[in-house]
Amino acid sequence: MSVPESKNINQLFALLIIDQMIKNKVRAFFVSPGMRNAPLLWAIDQLKTDKITVEVGIDERAHAFRALGFAKVTGETPCLLCTSGTAMANYFPAVLEAQKSQTSLLILSADRPASLVYATANQTLEQPHLLAPAAPTLLTLDAPALHSSPHEWAALLGHALHRGQATPKAPSHINISFTEPLDGSTQSIPPAMLLEAENILADSRPYTRHLTNVEPSMMERIFTEPGMVVIGELPYYEDHSGILDFLKKCPWPFYADVTSSLKFDFNLQHGQIPTFDHPEVMEWPKRHALQYILHLGGRVTSKHYYSFLDKNPETQLIAVNASPNMEDPALRTRIKIHQAPHQFVQALTLPLVPRNMSLEGLIPFVQKKMNLIHQSSQTFPALSKTIIELAPDKSLLVLGNSTAVRSFDSYTSLLLSKHLSVITNRGVSGIEGLLATAIGASDGLKAKPVTPITLVLGDISAMHDLNSLLSLRNLKAPLVIIVANDFGGGIFKLLGLSNIDQAMEMMTTPHDWKLAPMAESMGINCCSLNSQKELAKKYPEAIQDAVYSLRPIFMEFLINPQENLALYNQLKTIKV
Q1: What value does the mean pLDDT take over residues 391-408?
Q2: How far is 64 from 100, CA to CA, in rounded Å?
Q3: Cα–Cα distance between 131 and 136 in angstroms, integer?
């Protein structure tokens, strides 16, 4: 298609909005007059064709019922478009009928910027959630600005539109703010922004294609191109055997996040990429010019993965996940397959070709990393390496947030492989309640064969859940708790923050407390560890004792903050 010429940023992003609506099967627009929605009215005029219905109505209340009638006889999702202020409130009677009759309506409201709403400027009210719960607000976007990203808007809109058209059918709401100019006044548009928007507009498909299933032939064709598989978070209680078999046969190298519970089933020799958290390793996918990434499951731990996606838009991301959430911070998903990963892989017929990209060049990197960690004593990488190597096969790891989960996620062995299931609280990544979560996990596993459980968390996380020590003293379960005590929020010192020394103490909350004596005072079996060597000796003994006695054991591993920081700095400089 020829891309209409936009005079300013508002018009450009209004085109993106209406374009993605049309490409996501919105074929009818019931619009009402106004000024704040002028960019959207202009965009509809630019993009309308013989296949698009556009009806103008003065009275929003009556117009909403007209859209309702259209939806009831066609089964489609019409768009109701209005300006800011009370206009949207007049849709409410029709919205209530749509909710009760399970009829799909999409309300698109233009809004003034949040600062004007907060300042109670003329013709403003709190438009988001105004029609809830009858029509929940699925998306609220700030006014287009110089920093706005066309692909991010397209991805967010596509996700909201998919949710708005899902079954059971119901009304929904999208709210978009606009600043002036609202007319066709000429405004400079950054060339990169304009180019990205024009590429999206010129594509005949929606930015993100939402599919409920795929033809096997589609994936067979895709697997002939360069790519890799990424396994994100998977539910502990689901059967992962099909995904394990898929990874063994897949022609692409893969990366299993620690939250997938599959990471330690594989090593580098099996084709597993060791980490996303090292710049040298991230050069590997760039060198191989990946055409596709197949992402199974939820989010991954590493932010560098999402940075790679953002900087390499030519790599098409195919996400497979039954979750209604986006779970894509990079907003780069081009195909979303709404299916549980274990069901998706069952239907695949893989091409019988060998892995098309060797990881042999990464062997020296992994070996150097393992050697550096082995030489350290009181560090987080030494802790995670020791636990991974010595934890019993088929046991459960419960990992705390911050440094704990990242340390386990970044470790891959050259030869070792075993099945270690993992659960985390990575939904909102809070540091509270982790001890209680591990206790609850032990409750849930009581009906099954004895499963050793190891909880690893930091000192600040442990302090946030000291009350759970009361539950721990009476617990009958094979649970080993390891608190990595670096005497404060040490993760902030690992982030390379600059010009923030004055605030660092408030961020890290340094202390000189040891936690084992607190647990010991409650009658819990405890020990304190001062080195990797001690941990390697005491941890297997603790697991054995916990399994035999069905009593928890509390271990405190003391981190040397200076040694820990020095090791992390060394690990960053390893050359492949």
Answers
A1: 94
A2: 15
A3: 7
